[in-house]
Amino acid sequence: MPIGDEVLSSFTQKVRQERTYAERKLKVGIIGTGWIAEAHVESYLRQPDVEIVALADLIDGKAEAFARRYGLEAARCYPDHASMLAAETLDAVSVCTYNVTHAECAIDALRAGVHVLLEKPMCVTLDEAADIMRAEKASGKILTVGFQPRMDENMQMIRKIVQSGALGEVYYIQTGGGRRRGIPNSTFIEKKTAGIGALGDIGCYSLDMVLNAIGYPRPLTATGYTSNFFGTSTEYQKPEDAARFDVDDFAAAFIRLEGNIMLDFRISWAMHLDTPGDTVILGRKGALRIPSTECWNGTVGGPMTLYHDVAGEQVETVIPVLESHGPGLFDRKIRSFLDAIIAGGTAPVPTSQILYNQAILDAIARSAALGREVEIVIPNI
């Protein structure tokens, strides 16, 4: 077939797909009906072209109670994701389970021919991330990862500034954030469900902010440190929670990136400090300071400052905080996923990028356990 015919055929298929979706609502299923699923369902209910038709949860009666709370009388409830995928004809699912089951649920959904919105962190290990990408590639379906801060105007401004060349060649980044006191509960604090703690829960956001800005270069090595002094202490936790706490509540690392860039990272659920520092991106022509937040789960912590020289003089340019207009970040995350499905487009937050994010999280955890620097080897997909 001539190349021109191939392009025409692809275009025709997309037009037919858009027409098909225009004639009916997208059928969506929710895997896992815990806390984060509430935000997903509330956002889906605001979309006029979506019908939530199925819910799955391992805990007996939990999906049914969730359906009643949100008035989803017509939604069918299942005891696990496998039975839901086997019984339903779905267009998409949101995977809202605990971290250690992200890979299994996402892969099974892709193999069932369903588009996937996978909550962050992508998974726990680099090997799991590679398996997800292989399943995505084989399925031809969209898998996007739930990094809604990407949709924020100020986060996008960070990338615009860096990509404009205003900083010149970037050589050092300091990033992180965290809470003075802010340890979550439930499945977040045990390895058997979460796999990793603050490192994956909010550290992935901090990493995505700066890595997305500089174009997601390949990570090469990591020297990592983790601790859990607060999570395991009855001075700061209920005795029953301290007894089962076995993930990190603080993590730090030096990561070498391709392009001779050094990334200095730290993240915290609890510490005797209000912040481990602002994010700083240093380049040969200028530098950008981004005021810290607790977890980078929304926008920046205040006006940013660009440090540069003008006509031989040292100048500081304040970048005002941009006001958000229109839908909230979570709605933008959901809508961008749905629009990609309808248009036959690409994932708003592609796994090809988040694979590197997951590789860094994996390497920090491995390095901390070994007490030495580790090499980051990206698998072939």
UniProtKB/TrEMBL annotation:
- One GO molecular-function entry: oxidoreductase activity
Q: Does the keyword Oxidoreductase apply?
A: yes
Q: Name one Pfam family in it.
A: GFO_IDH_MocA
Q: Per the database record, which ranges form the GFO/IDH/MocA-like oxidoreductase domain? A: 156-289
The family database entries (InterPro entries) matched by this protein are listed as: Gfo/Idh/MocA-like_OxRdtase_N (IPR000683), Gfo/Idh/MocA_oxidrdct_glycsds (IPR050463), GFO_IDH_MocA-like_dom (IPR055170), NAD(P)-bd_dom_sf (IPR036291)
Q: Please state what the protein is called.
A: Gfo/Idh/MocA family oxidoreductase
Q: Which organism is it from?
A: Candidatus Avichristensenella intestinipullorum
Where does the Gfo/Idh/MocA-like oxidoreductase N-terminal domain lie?
Answer: 26-147
Reading the lineage from the top rank, the first entry is Bacteria
Keywords in alphabetical order: Oxidoreductase
